[in-house]
Amino acid sequence: MLQMTTFIDKREVFDTETHVGNELLNTLGLIISDVPDPIFIAEKRSGTVVLVNEFALERLFGLDPVGLQLHDVLGRDLPPGNRSSIYFSNRWYTLDIRSFTLNKKSYLKIRLKEKAGLLGAESLKSMQNMISVLLHRFRSPLTGMMGFVDILTLDHRNTRSEKHLSNLENGIDYLYEMLDELEYFLNLDSLSRTSDFDPAELVDEILNSFHGQDKDRVKILNQDHQTLSSCKIKVGKILSLLIDNAIRHSGNHPDITVSVDSSSSVHITNHGYSISEEDKEWIFQPFTTTAADRMGNGLTIAQILSANIGASIDLKTDEKSTTFILMLPPNKKGPNVN
Fold first, then answer.
1. Average pLDDT for residues 252-275, to the nearest whole number?
2. Most CB within 10 Å of its CB: which of 38, 97, 244, 281?
């Protein structure tokens, strides 16, 4: 049940004459006590926590936050907008913020909904086993086909035959590329060494790996330099996949912007491209694509890698743009979370 004895006994400033009465508190406590997510009730004006449920206390390892400032408990100010992500007690949550009035005072109810993973450990392992079998079954005949193409290429008799053989070779190369993309699923847990790096400098490195028009279409808006500790290889792969996805869906609109801010997040915005609310529900699912030459696993891999390093990806979209936000866990936790 809800633990709220400190609300009355420990902090005299919260008495029944200046704040909500015991009966209203008990009623409010019963309402939030069985909700299986951390919930904080705070005064809207002052930001002072006045009530929490037992799931919030569990995440705080028993620390009583009543009477403390909400931003001290959460380790940061509330991000703007409902359904934003917040890192709390070593986990990523989606914010659900509601305002209400009780006894003529305004309050905020902050519910932290744990973000659901794309694939559970068992589902991912099952997919990896399936992919391993498929790779073995397909690579063997492809290797044989490529060997015959090489022999025929050496023995071609006219230009027309050479052209057909070239097309066949390109087709086989394309199949190999698709298999390589699938093979990446088998290596998601490798290369996990942690190191210190500057995400702004990493973005520069990634953009330098793109060529020609693709590189020219990406503009860096701002770069707040900082040092983070994470797996640089995996962070780089995630950013590369998100930027590549933005380029491939930009159409004729030239503007793709990248910004690194002080909250350890990278924003990749595709201006001129919007994703519907319906499509947002499945866009991170595997084998999701509208392109004939792609497997549709880029965003899936990015999402799995982000979870693997304790990061999170948010998707924001409106009528004119789509933004993917890679949020890396801060190096330091909030003062009242440890």
1. 80
2. 38
